[in-house]
């Protein structure tokens, strides 16, 4: 019968092994009890499973004394509205606009000044922010001559050209694009003049058609002097007596204003011709091959001479 039921054999063996170990388990609590001393046993019985953390002694933190920071002249100059002593009218672009031509309409209300509300003491007219008083040309010329100082010698000019013209660091360069000489570019020029005697300006696009116009406005609006000119690369010298701490206040334009609406440069009917003759000449001109193709950002210094 036991052979037919083999599992009975394993149960009997387990009983025998348990009977042999039962005396050991009977004496196990007594052995554990005597293994602990009296003090340790009491401590073991009274110690809760999660004891509260002992409070830490308060540490005396060092009180930091607040230093009184005096406001610098540049911080004081940020009190609005700003008042600038520059003798010319503020425009978005000085080289690409003609003050003599009045617009016939506006794409946005002229009351919205790009300098921000209440940030400038000049009123925005839609195209410019005119100076409050007419400029004294003699006084302006004397102040500019005092900053420029004595003319540079050929050796000094060659040294400045060698130092700033062939510098491979592009961070010391200002790129002049299709906007021409813009108002915010004047602030960039003075920021470069803080750490360098001259700033390199590289011109691109449509303004390169008239480089003389760009050179005039750069010298007139910034007060510097162009000491080097090669195709589209210019070097603008700040002057011997230039002091960055006494630089003029130039309020920045917060956004680009919409261009006003001007009269058409190309009339529908040319002077001395009828409408049919003008239309015939235009259709004939469209069939001719182009002299050159103008691309965005290309140089065009010799286009008008061809």
UniProtKB/TrEMBL annotation:
<keyword id="KW-0507">mRNA processing</keyword>
<dbReference type="GO" id="GO:0006397">
    <property type="term" value="P:mRNA processing"/>
</dbReference>
<keyword id="KW-0809">Transit peptide</keyword>
<dbReference type="InterPro" id="IPR001890">
    <property type="entry name" value="RNA-binding_CRM"/>
</dbReference>
<keyword id="KW-0508">mRNA splicing</keyword>
<feature type="compositionally biased region" description="Polar residues">
    <location>
        <begin position="71"/>
        <end position="80"/>
    </location>
</feature>
<keyword id="KW-0677">Repeat</keyword>
<dbReference type="GO" id="GO:0003723">
    <property type="term" value="F:RNA binding"/>
</dbReference>
<dbReference type="GO" id="GO:0000373">
    <property type="term" value="P:Group II intron splicing"/>
</dbReference>
<feature type="region of interest" description="Disordered">
    <location>
        <begin position="37"/>
        <end position="80"/>
    </location>
</feature>
<dbReference type="InterPro" id="IPR035920">
    <property type="entry name" value="YhbY-like_sf"/>
</dbReference>
<keyword id="KW-0687">Ribonucleoprotein</keyword>
<dbReference type="GO" id="GO:1990904">
    <property type="term" value="C:ribonucleoprotein complex"/>
</dbReference>
<protein>
    <recommendedName>
        <fullName>CRM domain-containing protein</fullName>
    </recommendedName>
</protein>
<dbReference type="InterPro" id="IPR044599">
    <property type="entry name" value="CAF1P_plant"/>
</dbReference>
<feature type="domain" description="CRM">
    <location>
        <begin position="150"/>
        <end position="249"/>
    </location>
</feature>
<keyword id="KW-0694">RNA-binding</keyword>
<dbReference type="Pfam" id="PF01985">
    <property type="entry name" value="CRS1_YhbY"/>
</dbReference>
């Amino acid at each position: 019968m036991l052979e037919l039921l083999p599992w009975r054999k394993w149960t009997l063996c387990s009983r025998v092994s348990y009977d042999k170990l039962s005396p050991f388990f009977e004496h196990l609590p007594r052995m554990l009890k005597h293994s602990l001393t009296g003090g340790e046993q009491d401590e073991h019985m009274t110690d809760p499973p999660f004891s509260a953390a002992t409070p830490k002694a308060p540490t005396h933190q060092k009180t930091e004394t607040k230093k009184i920071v005096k406001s610098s002249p540049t911080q004081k100059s940020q009190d609005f509205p700003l008042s600038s002593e520059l003798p010319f009218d503020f425009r978005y672009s000085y080289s690409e606009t003609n003050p003599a031509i009045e617009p016939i309409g506006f794409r946005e209300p002229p009351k919205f000044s790009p300098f921000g509300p209440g940030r400038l003491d000049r009123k925005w007219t839609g195209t410019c922010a005119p100076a409050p008083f007419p400029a004294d040309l003699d006084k302006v010329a004397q102040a500019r001559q005092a900053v420029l100082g004595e003319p540079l010698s050929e050796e000094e000019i060659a040294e400045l050209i060698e130092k700033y013209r062939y510098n491979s660091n592009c961070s010391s360069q200002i790129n002049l694009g299709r906007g021409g000489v813009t108002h915010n570019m004047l602030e960039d020029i003075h920021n470069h003049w803080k750490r360098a005697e001259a700033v390199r300006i590289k011109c691109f696009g449509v303004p390169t058609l008239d480089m003389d116009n760009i050179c005039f406005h750069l010298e007139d609006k910034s007060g510097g002097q162009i000491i080097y000119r090669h195709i589209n690369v210019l070097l603008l010298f700040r002057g011997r007596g230039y002091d960055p701490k006494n630089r003029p206040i130039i309020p920045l334009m917060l956004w680009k204003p919409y261009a006003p609406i001007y009269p058409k440069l190309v009339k529908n009917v040319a002077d001395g011709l009828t409408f049919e003759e003008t239309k015939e000449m235009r259709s004939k001109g469209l069939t001719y091959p182009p002299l050159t193709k103008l691309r965005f950002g290309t140089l065009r210094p010799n286009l008008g001479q061809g």
